[in-house]
Design a protein that fits this description.
Oligomer: single chain
InterPro entries: Asp/Glu/hydantoin_racemase, Asp/Glu_race, Asp/Glu_racemase_AS_1
Number of helices: 10
Keywords: Isomerase
Organism: Streptomyces zaomyceticus
Structural class: alpha/beta
Pfam families: Asp_Glu_race
Protein name: Aspartate/glutamate racemase family protein
């Protein structure tokens, strides 16, 4: 069983690692776009063209399913990717986990890119799924780029700025960009440093585990975390076979995946 994942950069690592944990025997294909990144500042039409090219490159390797492991690409390009690949290859998009985060009520913060924060797309998700929760949208300028380049100082600056915009009594944080899940520990430390005496522990909601589980469901496979770790890893860089990006190895998820990567 081969599962493909796509993103402009290393934001696909959390979902890929989640698939690896659920099925150590699955072959993984990571399709990145170093020639076209970042996708966020592009027009919707340009972004869709880049994302579709990355998806089609992955499809040539005949995966059982394709995970669009990027919130921005899901917003703009998912219909085009599905039109091109389904029903032959199931396509799984990535949306912020607003519904499960809001299920317990209380105060919820959604950390997302500036382009997504306040967008009609995110406001629609809040309207449809937030229920009675009180939601604060928190823009995180520069955070995805800092994570992409594995720049810890830049990550800490961007996280600190976003933490300052997050109400102190928030109990739940939705990570609305796949890159953010790679630095969840830094986000937690920044928020807890502001003092939360008397408040319950913060709860984070990412999307990696949910999309990994959905990908298995779409191909009719059950989780088998104890399976033999025979799964391979291959990487496409704007359609060209290549190594896992060096910056990926700066994160635990990248190191987990890199152990199965061929030498280049």
């Amino acid at each position: 069983m081969k599962i493909a994942l796509m993103d402009s950069g290393i934001g696909l690592l959390p979902a890929a690692a989640a698939v690896r944990r659920l099925r150590p025997d699955a072959d993984l294909l990571l399709s990145n776009d170093p020639d076209g990144m970042p996708w966020g500042p592009r027009t919707p039409e340009d972004l869709t063209a880049r994302a579709l090219a990355v998806a089609l490159a992955a499809a040539e390797h005949r995966p059982a399913a394709l995970i669009v492991a990027c919130n921005t690409a899901t917003v703009h390009a998912l219909p085009a990717i599905r039109a091109a690949l389904e029903p032959d290859i199931p396509v799984i998009g990535t949306v912020p986990a607003i519904k499960p985060a809001a299920a317990a009520g209380g105060k919820v913060a959604i950390w997302a890119t500036p382009a997504t924060t306040g967008s009609a797309y995110q406001r629609g998700l809040i309207r449809d799924f937030a229920g009675g929760a009180e939601v604060t949208e928190v823009p995180c300028p520069g955070l995805a780029d800092a994570v992409e380049h594995a720049d810890p100082e830049a990550v800490d600056r961007a996280v600190a700025a976003a933490a300052a915009l997050t109400p102190g009594d928030v109990r739940t944080v939705v990570l609305g960009c796949t890159h953010y899940e790679l630095v969840e520990d830094r986000i937690l430390a920044a928020l807890e440093a502001r003092g939360r005496a008397g408040l319950p522990p913060l709860v984070f909601f990412g999307s990696a585990d949910a999309v990994a589980a959905q990908a298995l469901r779409r191909v009719g496979a059950e989780p088998a975390p104890d399976a033999d770790p025979t799964g391979t890893l291959s990487v496409l860089l704007s359609g060209r076979p290549g190594p896992i990006p060096a910056t990926a190895l700066g994160y635990a998820e990248g190191r987990l995946l890199g152990a199965a990567a061929p030498a280049h």
